[in-house]
User: Fold this.
Amino acid sequence: MNYKETVFLPRTEFPMRGGLPKKEPEILAGWKQIDIYRKLRETRKDAELFVLHDGPPYANGQLHIGHALNKILKDVINRSQSMLGKNANYVPGWDCHGLPIEWKIEEQYRKKGKDKDEVPVKEFRQECRDFAAHWLDVQSEEFQRLGVLGDWDDPYTTMAFGAEATIAAELGRILMEGSLYRGAKPVMWSPVEKTALAEAEIEYQDHTSVTIYARFAVKTPSHPALEGANIIIWTTTPWTMPGNRAMACGADIDYSVLRITGRGEGALAKDGDVICLATELVDEVTSAI
Assistant:
């Protein structure tokens, strides 16, 4: 006997398989068709405003997992605030200036055998703008593919002429107020790019420094114990030794004068040498020399 028809199980319209590679684009297309972001803005136009000011990514390549994590977490925040009844108006943006974009254009020049210095500045800047605009569009599509809701039709960009004009206007206002001044400070400089570098753009090379012990003879001793003695110093920058002009002693530091005896072959110090050094460093230094 077949009992299949006698078993009453819950029925659902959900498919047995997710089929997400096909389903997700359909969902996104549905959101776009009904213009869900605009509808949310209309529904929440009189509600309390919630603005997440999004630090912009560089428009210089495709997205990576860091971009995805960043935008998805921010999207979760915006959606949660919207569900709490707030007007979560999210405007995405892009940083279109800086060395990462210029460096990409220069890579293209090098492949073509071109010298950046021979390219007119106006032409170089336009190529940077075109490069940024291309990757801006690519990243926008990829962010939307992640399901991030926002005003993708009207993002902010640092290379927008309106934004650049506003910066110039504000700089002029600060100048007229007398708040603008010129100062001097050391900055990292790239001889290749011929521009200042931000701290985030600096990569330090690990280097094992050569250290040395050196001794300086006491010419005019102020104490009988220093007669014929040498003051011991230790430095990580031996190349600065020719430029040394003085040695400093600490008023609160105890010093010892030692006569070397019983040194073996290969030791830096010889029997009979008299050395002066900080008392707390006696064991460390004598074992090294």
Notes: Helices lie at 20-33, 36-43, 65-83, 99-112, 121-145, 161-176, 282-288. The first strand starts at residue 49 and ends at 50. The chain has two domains: 15-177, 212-288. The first helix runs from residue 20 to 33.
